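Entry 14: structure prediction run for Oxidoreductase, short chain dehydrogenase/reductase family protein. Input pasted below.
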Amino acid sequence: MFQELFILFSIIVIICILLKIFMALLPFFFLEQNLLNKYGHGYAVITGGTDGIGLKITRKLISQRFKVCVVGLKTDKICQNELPSDSILIEGDLSERHIVEEVCKWITDKNPSLLINCAGICIPQIFSTIEKPSKYIDAHISSLVELTSSFIKARNRHGGIVFFSSQVALFSSPYAALYAATKSFTAQFADSLSAENPGLDILCLFPGAVNDTSFFKSFPNHWYFNLIRLIGQKPTTIASLVFKALGRVRLLDTGLLTYVTRIATVFVDQNVINLAGQIVASSLRSQMEQKTPRELLL
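Run finished. Output tokens:
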């Protein structure tokens, strides 16, 4: 009897794992959609749109003839002259209230059909050394909530909202405690909104490490980060998935690091995962204590 139950349980576990892998890989086989044809009314808002994944999405939307409101830190990678007519580039920090208000006004005036919430940066440091922890909350949560609220009030059907959570939301993340917590909020917020608003296409992605972005610029030279670099994804891959998955799936794990973490959290007790986090934290502590505290910029 015990042997039969064990076999049955094993079969169920294997099926669940295979189903999870299937759902994670399925969007890669979708064709990219023309989102202007899908949603019409060619206006879109992209936060974090001046670098990394957000910049790739911005350029793809422009190629599909969207008029855009691009929000992000000032860079030399994109300028106002590159944008279509009736578009705007807002260079600033989303933790600043006047920036959020300017974007909300644009949403109210233009009634965009897409909102891409892509802003964010993780600067690893000991939590107690963060000079203004409230800036994390303002930039990653408060602004996201305000912009999403304005978008849904302006357009409660036939539109799309994209959120970016992260693999770090799934397990203990020493030296990124506040950032990981904001990504956990983003995941729950997006998941709940997608059930509450059936007239909108809402997508939340959970990328693992993303190479060729600012993600690794502030990270110390350590075996753990060197390892995840090897399995990191490219921004173009993540951007392409947005155009493949929006309106087809609602929650999307992407990248080997996220797949492994998601499966591990199902089968490994959280206390064991926390212990693994402590081991990594211990090996990093001396480097982190030598870092000069930095104020968050987004």
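Notes: The mean pLDDT is 88. Will compare against the previous run tomorrow.
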